[in-house]
Design goal:
single chain, alpha/beta, Rossmann fold, Beta-Lactamase, 5 domains, seven-stranded mixed sheet, five-stranded parallel sheet, PAS-like_dom_sf, HisK_dim/P_dom, PAS-assoc_C, two-component regulatory system, EC 2.7.13.3
């Protein structure tokens, strides 16, 4: 029985009232009740309260049960009367009573009262649902006749019972042509079309609506796409009485969707070609640039005539600027493609700032400028973020300050703006007393390929991408950047970065320097490199460290050499003819035994796009050096891996 059903008992016999109350209490029946002893009192209670069921005796003090029926309340009524009143019961049922009970002197009729009430309430609810469904169908037929969507009503056997005018216009079929047929009349028989039978089965099983797209055919055989919603109509017994389908013609939308897919594929192909071009361009430029930079560095370190010093410095400066331009173009392309992402690693914040600052001291002093820094003391020692991109932003702004300042000073300031939990917001300022920026150019200074004037480009160089890249990196940090400047007086670039505070502030710092006692002279290194200029450069560089070098021109030869000879380390180019460095590294790791299997492999490649380093590590390489390589960095990596290799080999010998 319905939980907390509310019942009105109309009974003028006090003994019957008491018997009813006692039975409810003893049986712990879960419903509330009120008692009225007359038609008048019942009328008042029905006006003031809502009831689920009325139980009324036939004879009442001021009338009878028919007076209750005549009150017009549409509440299920259970009629009670004594034995021998069968004619009255039949009359009551005809007048609208829902059920009846025959009173007996022992009042056993009370025992079936709960079941009778439950049955009456369920029947009433079912009748209300049926009325609601019929009303819904009536309203739907009115709406369906006016809507531009096709409406189909299927009977319980999934045969078309009714369609609206919009359906006839959409499909070309008349109502008489479709009546009694199944939805198959519209179905296009192809392998790739949505399986309608599975949808109908799901609607029937779940007894809920389902929306899907399907390709149909008109009477003339013309294809059209429809967005269809199937909705079941449930009858009194809980079974599906009808299914209503509402179809919208989405052929135009599907056409646009297909055009967008084609356009997206073309855009992706264009992006792929562009990335491939940039990767090739980067490789082709960096390869000869590696030779220029490397041989220049060797000449600077070796003996040369004093008058050659300025020429060598000019070559180094030009090489550095060319590399900056290449990196700017690659970074800008990654930003445009939405592929620049920030790393989340722990780093020592003050060490990072100190390192950036120290890298500018010599250049600033050479120009006769003053340089200073201020780092707020309360900033935590260890933070979490992307130190490489932070370095890129600050270095770019410091380089600009140095480039455009002829006299005066440059200042780097870092302050804490706010802190919430582990999140910290830092503000950076780079001040200079340089040429400044005209007021009318301040709004454009962070735009791609923009500089203050064409004369700036001619005099100072650059791509006009640096500040655009800086702004995008700052945005990735959920920060903002702005500039305050007065022409002829100087500029201050202000930006903020959102970082995290590392949980452990007391970890020991790992000094990223090789043990100064490590001597790499005499070690044997296999170099896989196909470009003759780079072969010569790496040979000269390693020879200057007294390293024994053997050079091969592709990965296939490198794989063969490792099987034939013992080497302490391999320097492996990535892009080589016949077999590249990635494939050769995989072969060494997968097909050789120890100790050759675990020989350290350092990639040396002119590739500089995102993912290049990850590809090298995935192939089994231990580390990565980008061309043009820095000689100190290369020495550091060789020394570290040689030291580790000696320990590994010693451990292998002990185990054997």
């Amino acid at each position: 029985m319905k939980v907390n059903s509310r019942i009105l008992l109309i009974e003028d016999d006090p003994i019957d009232q008491m018997a009813f109350e006692r039975f409810v209490k003893m049986e712990e029946l879960n419903f509330e009740y009120d008692i009225a002893d007359s038609v008048q009192q019942a009328s008042e209670k029905l006006s003031a309260n809502e009831y689920d069921v009325i139980i009324t005796d036939y004879m009442l003090g001021d009338g009878n049960a028919f007076d209750i029926l005549n009150l017009g309340h549409r509440i299920p009524l259970i009629f009670t009367s004594g034995v021998g009143d069968e004619e009255i019961i039949v009359k009551a049922m005809k007048k609208g009573a829902s059920d009846y009970l025959i009173k007996d002197t022992s009042r056993n009729y009370l025992k079936v009262l709960p079941l009778t009430i439950d049955k009456t309430i369920r029947r009433s609810l079912a009748e209300k649902r049926l009325l609601a469904v019929e009303e819904e169908l009536k309203q739907l037929s009115i709406v369906a006749s006016q809507t531009s969507n096709a409406v189909i009503i299927f009977d319980s056997e999934l045969k078309i019972e009714w369609v609206n005018e919009a359906f006839c216009k959409m499909t070309g079929y008349s109502f008489l042509e479709t009546k009694g047929s199944s939805g198959e009349i519209l179905r296009k028989d192809t392998k790739n079309i949505f399986k309608i039978n599975a949808v109908v089965e799901q609607v029937i099983k779940g007894k809920k609506s389902y929306t899907y797209e399907n390709l149909n055919l008109t009477k003339d055989g013309e294809e059209y796409w429809a967005l269809t919603t199937l909705t079941p109509i449930i009858d009194v017994s809980g079974d599906i009485h009808k299914i209503i389908a509402i179809e919208s013609d989405i052929t135009a939308n599907k056409k646009v969707e297909q055009e967008l897919i084609v356009a997206k594929e073309k855009a992706e192909e264009s992006t792929r070609i562009k990335e491939e071009f940039l990767a090739n361009m980067s490789h082709e430029i960096r390869t000869p640039l590696n030779g220029i930079k490397g041989f220049t560095d060797l000449l600077v370190k070796n003996e040369h005539y004093p008058e050659q010093e300025k020429y060598l410095e000019a070559i180094q400066f030009s090489t550095k600027n060319l590399l900056i331009i290449i990196n700017d173009i690659l970074d800008f392309s990654k930003i445009e493609a939405g592929k620049m992402e920030l790393e989340q690693t722990e780093f020592y914040f003050r060490d990072l700032i100190e390192s950036i600052f120290n890298s500018f001291i010599f250049q600033v002093k050479e120009k006769g400028l003053e340089i200073s820094k201020k780092i707020e003391e309360k900033i935590p020692e260890t933070l979490v973020g992307d130190p490489v991109r932070i370095n890129q932003v600050i270095t770019n702004l410091m380089s600009n300050a140095l480039k455009f300042t002829e006299k005066g000073s440059i200042e780097l300031i870092v302050e804490e703006i706010s802190r919430k939990g582990d999140d910290i917001n830092l503000q950076f300022k780079v001040k200079d007393s340089g040429i400044g920026i005209p007021e009318d150019k301040l709004d454009y200074i962070f735009t791609s390929f923009s500089q203050a004037s064409s004369s700036t480009t001619r005099k100072y160089g650059g791509t006009g991408l640096g500040l655009a890249i800086v702004k995008n990196i700052v945005n990735l940090f959920k920060g903002q950047i702005r500039v305050e400047s007065t022409e002829g007086i100087g500029s201050v670039f202000i930006f903020d970065l959102h970082l995290e505070i590392a949980k452990n502030q007391n970890i020991l710092k790992e000094i990223e320097k090789p043990d100064q006692k490590i001597d790499i002279s005499g070690i044997k290194i296999l170099v896989a490199e196909d470009y003759p200029m780079n072969q010569l450069l790496i040979n000269e560089t390693l020879s200057s460290w007294d390293v024994e070098t053997e050079i091969v021109e592709n990965g296939k030869l490198a794989f063969e050499k490792v099987q034939e000879n013992e080497y302490d380390l391999i320097l492996m180019d990535v892009n080589m003819p016949e077999m590249g460095g990635l494939e050769a590294s995989r072969l060494i790791r997968d097909q050789l035994n120890e100790p050759q299997k675990s020989i350290p492999i350092i990639a040396m490649t002119a590739g500089a796009l995102k993912g290049d380093k990850e590809k090298c590590i995935e192939a089994g390489m231990n580390d990565y050096v980008s061309k043009p390589f820095d000689q100190d960095e290369l020495f550091l990596k060789i020394a570290n891996f040689f030291s580790l290799r000696k320990k590994e080999l010693a451990k292998m010998n002990q185990e054997n």
